Amino acid sequence: MSEGFRISRLSGVTARLVAYDWLFPRDNAAAIADHWQARLARSPGMFDGTVLLGCACAVEAGIARVDLFPARYSSFIAYRDWGRTEGGVVNAFAAIVPWSADGAVLLGEMGAHTANAGQLYFPCGTPDLDDVRGDAVDLAGSAARELAEETGLTLPEGAATEWVMLAGAGQLAFLRPVLFPEPAEALCARIAAHHRREAEPELAGIHLARAADGPEAARMPGFVRAYLADVFGG
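RESULT FIELD:
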């Protein structure tokens, strides 16, 4: 366990869309609306769409099976910001962890218009209805889509398919470490070129991690620090 997160190695992740009666939005509707308006005042670019949150997860024979249900983004943001835990609902999401050929992990700095402005993350996002395929939710596809949208990178041929699950702090982070053939400098140049082609990039820049306790660790959420501590030691 690192930073309060349980870390598990997985050979696969599957997810399905389920119906779930989440009482939190109904019981706190007025407070959620006020919180959302306050958040919009700080980050006007946010959109109150539908996201998918986790309500159950089981691991058997190295495979994680996750149940997800639809919720308003404003409800999720209030639930997360207030540190609530009703019904065991968690922020369950998938992310590619880009590794450069020379041993660096790439982190994106969230842009000023986003809900997590200034924080350093792996390129990722909360899954949404675009990731639904029938009654299944394509978390692997969600991770690859977010990587492409935020960095312009696509997965190299033959990329590893193993996952690392970090559970804690109201989150289920499914991380897929992927080794890219280029060194960090070349990857950063590719990402910078992608950002120059965008009107409003989601990321403000790319940072490199080569250790667990660098000077920017305070800007990383707990699951990122936990992963780096696990792979780099510390």
